[in-house]
Amino acid sequence: xxxxxxxxxxxxxxxxxxxxxxxxxxxxxxxxxxxxxxxxxxxxxxxxxxxxxxxxxxxxxxxxxxxxxxxxxxxxxxxxxxxxxxxxxxxxxxxxxxxxxxxxxxxxxxxxxxxxxxxxxxxxxxxxxxxxxxxxxxxx
Length: 140
What we know:
Blueprint: E1 12-16, E2 19-27, E3 40-47, E4 60-69, E5 71-75, E6 79-83, E7 89-92, E8 97-100, E9 103-111
Antiparallel strand pairs: 1-2, 2-3, 3-9, 4-7, 4-9, 5-6, 5-8
């Protein structure tokens, strides 16, 4: 397995109705965010507009974790939740979703062929990395 270090200045930045999102990782590398032909996407969004609708990602599971600020998430017909920094919300990418609150978040999107999990690590916490087809992304 090959590893690649991507620097912040190399992130691909996209605009969305609520602000901007920086694409950190896209798999497979030949896929395209706009075509939604990827299997895994990791990004960080700067959310500045309350109530902006989230993009439709039918066939994907979304994981959102605020890094800074709080987000009151609304999933029409499903649930709502208040997320403070490092709280996680997992939801279907096809749901009509919006949030209230200014925040910088961390996002994981997985296609129906993949299972993913976000877990914040405490400053002195360590993990064991094994070769098992798992992609680990450690942010500091």
